[in-house]
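Input record (Table S2, row 376):
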Amino acid sequence: MNKKITIFDTTLRDGEQTPGVSLTNDQKLKIARQLDKLGIDVLEAGFPISSEGDKQSVKAIANEGLRLDVCGLARVLTKDLDTCLDTGVDMIHTFVSTSDIQRIHTIKKSKEEVLTMAVDAVQYIKDHGVKCMFSAMDATRTDLDYLTQIYKAVEGAGCDIINVPDTVGIMSPSRMYHLVGAVSKEIRIPIDVHCHNDFGIAVANSLMAAEAGASQIQVTVNGIGERAGNANLAEVVMCLQSIYGAKTNINTEYLLETSKMVEKYTGIHMPPNTPIVGENAFAHESGIHTHGVLTKADTFEPGIMTPEMVGHKRRIVLGKHAGKHAVQKSLEDAGIQTTDEQLDEIVRRIKAIADKGKRICDADLHAVAADVLGRN
Ligand code: KIV
Ligand code: ZN
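Output record (3-methyl-2-oxobutanoic acid complex):
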């Protein structure tokens, strides 16, 4: 794997294609500023030809003076490219369908026509002095010889980076590894990947692409996007850094804060067991686990990823699996001292309440403790 991986965020473009999600221009600007603070390398701010609102928000983000590169999406059509150029972006991401199924049934163009359109679009972008990324849409269902032919042709036209999109999320990690490996033997410019999550393995597919030589990964905050979404930003980054030992420019301590902002603006809420940014990502309930964690955190946490690294907090949860240590710690945190017998009685009552299917909150614990300590 490349030791340094750059992160291309498409929360404001593919992410906004999440069914039911529509962001205001003000929300998009706030998210763009947050992604800049997070350390994203390239931000796909939108698809300017898709609506006047999108064009205006891409323009506003491009004029914001952010550290990151702002990118706009465009088909390989002059009207799309011109609209994108008008916004003042640093980079244009241009795309065209290359798989037979999309080429024949959607754009109705021959392989030769598609190749010419791709090369012309890349040349047009480069003639305007803007960075260019080319995507062979549905690359993972495209005949490999044709795919490499088109990538070589756009490389020859001056393209800066090519993208291998798994548009309908049908790849397996090993197939992604072989595909990116095969493409990287044919071209010299950097390779980026864009994996959809239809089978829940977009992150695994992206990581295998990086193992095979891709140097840029496309992600969205909270994994939002078309259908089942895209590769999840927090998961990709933490796997790269903590498991693979690769470097990114991401300031990981802002991952939770970023996730919360996107949850709030999109209305798409993460289940509590979501890795890294979920409410339970660093929560412990079982007696064995809490005792271990209260003694030394790494006993029942990865260690290579701590809550502090991602801006999260460790949480001890009281429930039917709670042990004496967890209850004692919660009581001490609330300034409540007990004898051993009182603690045993509090633990017994807490478990009895939880056994009835109730969630234990601090108020329950304090009420039980007050009763046992005779303070009522
Ligand atoms: O999924 C996809 O293929 C896309 C393209 C625009 C790259 O989103
Ligand atoms: Zn996509």
